[in-house]
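Page header: ASSEMBLY MODEL / two components / 732 residues total.
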Amino acid sequence: MSEVIFQLENIGYSYIDGGRKRVILDELNCDFEKGTFYSILGPSGSGKSTLLAIAGALDQPEKGTVKFRGKSINQLGQTLFRRNNIAIIFQKYNLMNYLTAAENVEADMMIVDHKITGNKRELAYKILERLGIVKTKADRLVTKLSGGEQQRVAIARALAKDVELILGDEPTGALDTATQKEIIDLFKSLAHDYGKTIILVTHSDDVAGQSDVILHLSDGKLIRKPLAQAREPEESRTARKSMQV
Amino acid sequence: MRVLIHGIKSLIRRPAKTAMLFVILLVIFNLIFTGFIIQNSIQKSKEYIRSQIGSAVEYKMDFTSLMTANSSPNTPQSQETSRPPSLSLKVAEQIASSKYVDSYYITDSANVDSSTISPAETQTSGSNFQRNFSSFNLSGSNLTDNLDFVMGNVKLVDGKTMTEDDLKNGTAVVIISEDVASANNLTVGDIIPLSVATQQQPGESGGMGGANTGGASSDATTTSATESNYEVIGIYQAVEDGFDVNTMFTSNAVINAINGTEDSDDTSASIVFLLDSPDHVATFIAESTPYLTSEYHSLYSDDSEYQSLTKPLNLISFITSILIWVVFVAGAAIILALVTIFVRDRKFEIGLLLSSGEGRLKIIGQFIFEILVIAILAFGVSTISSNIISQSVSNWIVDNQLLSTTSLIGSTSTSTTELNGFQQQNSVSVYGSVDMQNVADKFDLSIDASVIGELMLASVLLVFIGSSIPLIVIMGYHPRRILQDDN
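Prediction written out in full:
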């Protein structure tokens, strides 16, 4: 069994909606192992993004503890945890639009406290090239790149930080199938070859199907299931609803 | 490092926003700087006028009040109104103990004749009221330098001034003008006989202190004279136009011996206090007036002239300060609105940096850096352009305000000596002349280090007030709300 590096312990989160308390995460527990590629599936509104925000120290849970390498992230310091231990990839608004692709990637290397060895700009070019962004494009302002290219740059930013944990909120949602496959292969490689822990929130069965572990978020809890079982409750519910209609 | 690199890239790669903020800061700075420069120049002109008028305050009889009291039918005639008490040396000493007093001069005087030397011919000879019956005026001093030397009305060209011993012992020494020296072929070290004319009843004899007392008679019917010898220790040259060159300088002790007032506290001398700064005149008068022993005594300075000369400048200064404040407040509001728009516009960048673990203060630091770079550029251009704008405004001020006030002032401190029933006056110029042409010439708009310091302070304050609120908002930004909820 691999080493557990990230833990969600008894996480609880709710909000008031129309005067009613709505529980999103309820006593949620989950351990994440080093060098594993996780995907989290769940219907819309199930709390996937909230879970990712809590895991990424972008939001605070009402209850419970998020631990990295056995230490609460509150103890580590949320900002420091975000800076040095995780990288988050969003579906949109991933880049600083007045910088070139290479400068965007370089920016994250400047933020982290640990020393990035070698020339940062050259490293940025290498990472981008690996993601299919050649040097001529890497020197363009990101606003001059296509949506798919921008998302690759966003992923490159996450890789540039050289952290153990990468979180993604539908990071391949805006990409075409071919590019999506390339990126997923890259995530798999990062997990298996470089020991990174990848946690992606996704709607895509294709993406989930290629991950090592599929977690289904349902009724505020994370349940570990194979893809077929993970999809079953949602599909069954949809089928039942259709029959009732 | 990231803050600086990204700050500079943001400025260069968003030229429209950079230019917009630059132009707005330029306009605001120019208006404020112009106001500041004009105000500073006005302040300097007022200081110049004040320095020209000087920092002298006189302790003197208030003849205006006395005449008003005497001529008013409602004022009962009293001992004080018919013959007010003389000025008091003790009161003068009390007043002189003020922290604002640098030095104080008691200038007493006596009129003397001489049997062997004659007065120098001057334009004022024969018409001078002060010496309508004598040849020379002896002007005494309580300090080694007579007030006329201090005020620059005369300057020593040969010999020396009096010593402390001369003052203390009443040594019979005089400093004469080069005109008198030339007319009588006198040099330093010569001995001259001087006599004081005294009105004499038949059978009465007059006396005076001096080194060697001799006897001489003058007018057979009204006066007789007693001569004493005085050593010429110095020769002066008159600098002030119209200065009476037949004035001889000596010590007050000599004058007191002549007038027989050695032990008297009462004095009719000119008493002048020179203060450490013209700015302290009003405070000094206010603090020292309670020491006065008669309502007909006063502490006087030429403040009224100062007030009248600076009136147009004060008006412009007032209007300028309103302009500064209005532009300052409006400018701060404009900067606030602009920076708020810029911060909102870069909300996602802020969210992204926060999610990457960048510190909020560093993010604010980048905004401040960008604003400061633009502000410094605008500051540099504004200091030059506002100087040009101020120049044209100053031309208007000089032509329409300063030169229309063509007053030329200059007045004298006067001691009044009663001798033989005549009021004799001894005048010392203690207030400078203010030529408004000079003031106009001195209306200096050049920017010195202190003005630049003030402008910089105003700029920093303006930018700080304008940008602090929107930048503080960043402290409250929630990265999740920015990056996920808006997705």
